[in-house]
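ingest -> validate -> predict -> emit
validate: passed (alphabet ok, no gaps, 146 aa)
predict: started
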Amino acid sequence: STVNEQQFAQAFLAQFGNIGALVRIVVGAAFITMLLVVGNTMMMNSRARTREIGIFKSLGFPRASVARMVVGESLLLAVSAALGGLLLAGGVVALLRTSPNFAGLTMPPAIWLGGLGAAFLLGLLTAAVPLRTALNLDVATALGRV
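emit:
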């Protein structure tokens, strides 16, 4: 019996097993990797900015302002990286859609919102330790560091 191209492509992909589970595993691993990378970057950034935070505190900036700065930096880093990744993925999807085998491939708004939501959560998660460090920083210690 004969089959059309779309049925052939589906049968070909079915040979590889459960594609959905494989994609979820890869996405989960990428999310954990992003968590580690963004967390490490934020920790390095907070160590490098110890003196600046000490100056802010010595000038009388309230704890809330310091907290907004640390959390805002973390959110900016995570959300901008996610937006770049989503734009790249959108470009790949648009490129693949030109092929007859992937004509129905789309990136619905739920994917965009989910990706940005996950990045927002990631930014908040990775800000926790640097935020605690910045808020508990002793001004004399921070200004004594070179």
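The two ends are 77 Å apart (CA to CA).
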